[in-house]
């Protein structure tokens, strides 16, 4: 793009490379920290404790879904995707497996839930990203009101996926059953 606009130079390339290294390093450090957390947590018996606790919730399967989705939604309002996934997945996935939950379906539920959280006022990160690129006459309150239809649609999609898991598992179950030719 820079070359197309005749703005390319080696300082620009160097700065882009350095920014890429910084961001990648940050992500790797977060991954390293969460992996260490998971290993220590598992080594101290935390995974087994959480599996027992989460699979023994009132309501069983659905009780776990409600607790997991509520926790992910609340975290999604204040934290970013990478931190949430690296911290919650090692806790929730073993419990989901113990309850026999399809992990494809569970992952899609988490993604839809996080999307809804990211656009939720008052702290949804996406709203602040939007306000940073919006014209000065567009106030944050306007953005908060404007996102409500998207939240409603997102919640409807989430409800459809909860009610009809086949909407997201259809292709994987057909493939697993041998219906899809190589």
Automatic annotation (TrEMBL):
Primary location group: membrane
Gene Ontology CC: one annotated term: plasma membrane
Pfam families for this protein: DctM
Protein's membrane topology: Multi-pass membrane protein
Cytoplasm found in the keyword field: no
GO molecular function: transmembrane transporter activity
Record-annotated membrane-spanning stretches: 21-41, 61-93, 105-131, 143-164
Species, as recorded: uncultured Truepera sp
Annotated compartments: Cell inner membrane
Domain TRAP C4-dicarboxylate transport system permease DctM subunit: 4-166
Signal peptide: none
Lineage: Bacteria, Thermotogati, Deinococcota, Deinococci, Trueperales
Protein name: TRAP C4-dicarboxylate transport system permease DctM subunit domain-containing protein
Keyword field: Cell inner membrane, Cell membrane, Membrane, Transmembrane, Transmembrane helix
Keyword Magnesium: no
Top-level taxon of origin: Bacteria
């Amino acid at each position: 793009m820079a070359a197309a606009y005749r703005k390319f130079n080696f300082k620009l390339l160097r700065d882009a490379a350095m920014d890429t290294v910084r961001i990648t390093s940050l992500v790797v450090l977060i991954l390293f920290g969460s992996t260490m957390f998971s290993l220590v947590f598992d080594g101290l018996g935390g995974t087994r404790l959480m599996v027992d606790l989460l699979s023994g919730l009132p309501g069983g399967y659905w009780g776990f879904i409600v607790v997991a989705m509520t926790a992910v939604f609340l975290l999604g309002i204040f934290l970013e995707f990478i931190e949430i996934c690296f911290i919650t997945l090692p806790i929730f996935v073993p419990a989901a497996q113990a309850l026999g939950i399809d992990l494809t379906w569970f992952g899609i539920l988490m993604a839809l839930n996080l999307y809804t959280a990211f656009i939720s006022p008052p702290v949804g990160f996406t709203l602040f990203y939007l306000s940073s690129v919006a014209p000065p006459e567009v106030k944050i309150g306007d953005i908060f009101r404007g996102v409500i239809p998207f939240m409603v649609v997102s919640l409807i999609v989430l409800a459809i996926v909860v009610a009809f898991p086949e909407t997201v598992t259809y292709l994987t179950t057909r493939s697993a059953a041998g219906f899809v030719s190589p």
